[in-house]
Amino acid sequence: MKKMRIIVSGGGTGGHIYPAMALIKRLKERDLIDDVLYVGTEKGLESKIVKNAGIDFKTIEIRGFKRKLTLDNLKTVELFLSSIGKSKKIIKEFKPDIVIGTGGYVCSAVVYAAHQLHIPTVIHEQNTIAGVTNKFLAHFVDKIAIAFTEAVDQFSEKKKIVFTGNPRAQEVVNIQKNDRLKEFNLDANKDTVMIFGGSRGAKPINQATIETMDKFIEADYQVLFVTGRVHYDNVIKLIDSKYLNSANISVLPYIDNMPEILPDIKLIVGRSGATSIAEITALGIPAIFIPSPYVTHDHQTKNAMSVSKVGAAKLIPEKELTSESLFKEINDIMSDTTVQQTMSVKSKEIGVPDAADRLIKVLTDLVNK
Questions:
Q1: Is 300 annotated as a binding residue?
Q2: CA 68 – CA 117 distance, rounded (Å)
Q3: Taking the alpha carbons of 244, 245, 249, 251 in that order, is the dihedral positive or negative?
Q4: 54 annotated ligand-binding residue
């Protein structure tokens, strides 16, 4: 199979960047890359993540449109047009066989420029609700890769759509059980619930968890509570020391390389971002989702509904989240091994453990056409 020169672009949030990184990692594992270039913005999260991974990185200056008509949007249009010009220069110098965009406004210019230069193009949509950039690019690209079947309705170009799943799923699927829970003063052999509100943490989830400590201390399972770095100091102040010193509870600001501990978790409680769902379903872990109501088009709720409707997860809307509702849902699952096993099976049924390879096939088919 021919080795490819590939340009990858995506940014703004980890949900756009981590699937791209997982794809690059798998391409390298299969020795399918001749060279790879990542195009992002200097201010975006991708700048740090991609550079730290040792991947060649170039930037363009671009920003998203305001939702209201403003004079500021004229500047945004100017930046978009000039970024197309810079993207063309980057593409002509690098000479890629294919260009893939994983979302975020930065990839709009890069993928559109590649289309104008007659380079094969693909976009990857991670969520049930497509982003503005991907909806725009869908008219021009050769293929649209999706991670949720519900996303089909987001695009009019049905013939271009291929269901691949999220490459992040394949990155975690082979992780084996380990004793890493010991690092957090927990019993590696005891059933564990992880409560995690995302990398920045989530105040409502943290508050409900704090108010449930008196029940967790007496449970026959243990709780790994990850607050997010921003909230950690305040959370610690609000928790009675008897709970902090309990062998049943561990409170942390953040966990590096979190996927490593997922095989040791019986139940995950948290947000329903696309990357989290890809990881959870690849491993078949039961989940309780508390979607963020603050994301664009409420896509986390739609993501969570996609998983909960098949019985792989429970859904608690944030406005209905209380210590009582949180504990009830956790306890109902953790006290019944049959429920756990059923949810795990349902989760694996919708997981896509070969997602990166599926996306790679889309790329190689276009390159070899």
A1: yes
A2: 32
A3: positive
A4: no
Task: Give the number of residues written for the chain.
Answer: 369
Q: How many angstroms separate the CA atoms of 77 and 4, rounded? A: 32
Rounded to 5 degrees, φ, ψ at 170 are -70, -30
Per the listing, tokens 């995506």 go with: 10
- 272 within 8 A of 301, measured Cβ to Cβ: yes
Q: What span, in angstroms and rounded, lies between the C-alpha atoms of 287 and 315?
A: 9
3-class state of residue 100 by DSSP: strand
Say which residue, 69 or 220, is predicted with more confidence: 220
* 330 has binding-site annotation: no
The model's pLDDT over 172-229, given as tens digits with 9 standing for 90+, comes to 998 988 889 999 999 999 999 999 998 788 999 999 999 999 999 999 999 999 999 9
Alpha-carbon distance of 145 to 281, in angstroms, equals 18
Q: Are 82 and 61 in contact (CB under 8 A)?
A: yes
Helix crossing, 72-94 with 106-116: angle to 10°?
A: 50
Q: Rounded to 5, what percent of the chain is helix, strand, coil?
A: 50, 15, 35
Measured CA to CA in angstroms, residue 157 lies from 101, 112, 154, 165, 286 at distances of: 17, 16, 9, 18, 34
Q: Kindly compute the dihedral angle of the four CA atoms of residues 184, 185, 191, 196, in this order, to the nearest 10 degrees.
A: -30
Name residue 292's amino acid: S
Integer Cα distance of 323 and 183 in angstroms: 27
Short-list 239, 227, 218, CA closest to 195:
227
14 is in an annotated binding site: yes
Structure tokens at 62: 């671009």
265 is in an annotated binding site: no
Q: Is 344 among the annotated ligand-binding positions?
A: no
Reported as a single tens digit per residue, the pLDDT across 42-60 is 888 898 899 999 999 999 9
Is 212 labelled as part of a ligand binding site? no
> Hey, what domains does the chain have and what are their CATH numbers?
4-172+353-368 (3.40.50.2000), 180-350 (3.40.50.2000)
Say which residue, 350 or 297, is predicted with more confidence: 350
